[in-house]
Amino acid sequence: MLVDLSIKDFLAETASNTPVPGGGSISALNGAIATALTEMVANLTIGKKKYADYEGQMKTIATEAATIRERLIGYIDEDSDAYNRVFSAFKLPKETEEEQAARSAAIQEATKEAALVPMRVAEEVGSVMETIIYVAHKGNQNAVTDACVAMMAARTCVLGALLNVRINLSSIKDEEFVRRLAEQADHLEAEAIRIEQKLLEWVKKQL
Fold first, then answer.
1. Considering the domain boundaries, does residue 116 fall inside one?
2. b (16+ CB within 10 A) / e for 174-187
3. Is residue 136 a part of any domain in this protein?
4. How far apart are the C-alpha atoms of 22 and 160, rounded to whole Å?
5. What's 90's domain CATH number?
6. Number of folded domains that form the chain
7. Distance of CA 153 to the CA centre of its chain
8. In the predicted model, is pLDDT for residue 207 greater than 90?
9. How wide is the angle at C-alpha 85 spanned by C-alphas 79 and 88, nearest 5°?
């Protein structure tokens, strides 16, 4: 599994001449990094008298961020697995009409899943971005720039994952499926950009 590799080996695998891990897995990794940093800022706040009023919320954030982080780690491999299923579908036999129909259906089904996996990643991380603003505002101010890095990693995750959604949508024939995911992608992208900008504009005034 990709997630069991060392950082050096994972990067070497990414740099190799194989298509996985690719942008989808790297987007999920960015999301996991974003949630890890969010969790870190919360943990650096817990137990500090200066931030006692926010301790309960920070404990909740740390717990929730850890749960989301674990799911995102799983998506690193799941995204690569989804790509491999599409690749395998294209290799199915196509000599007869029946084989062609079965192959086409398999490609469409695998491509839908390849779009849904990065959409789940974008949704997961998009749901954390307002929380990152909260830990930046209310958490340990010695770690405010760590919260900003979390936000930038989150935005990279969301936008990168949505690129993978859209490239798969371009090959899907189910018009309603494409319409629904395209609208969702547009909304998630706009929100990610808006929320990141809100935090970065605020932090510039603090530093």
1. yes
2. eeeebeebeeebee
3. yes
4. 10
5. 1.20.120.680
6. 1
7. 9
8. no
9. 145
Between CA 17 and CA 23, with CA 21 as vertex, the angle to 5 degrees is 105
Nearest Cα to 165, choosing from 186, 150, 151? 186
C-alpha span between 148 and 150 (Å, rounded): 5
Find, among 62, 64, 171, 61, the residue nearest to 114 by Cα: 171
Query: Which residue range(s) make up the domain with 59?
Result: 23-206
Residues of the chain with pLDDT > 90, as a percent, come to: 99
**Six-digit token pair at 100?**
């062609």
pLDDT tens for 70-91 read: 999 999 999 999 999 999 999 9
Give tens-digit pLDDT for 131-190.
999 999 999 999 999 999 999 999 999 999 999 999 999 999 999 999 999 999 999 999
Report the distance separating Cα 158 and Cα 63, nearest Å: 22
Task: Tell me how far CA of residue 56 lies from CA of 42, 48, 138, 140, in angstroms.
Answer: 10, 12, 12, 14
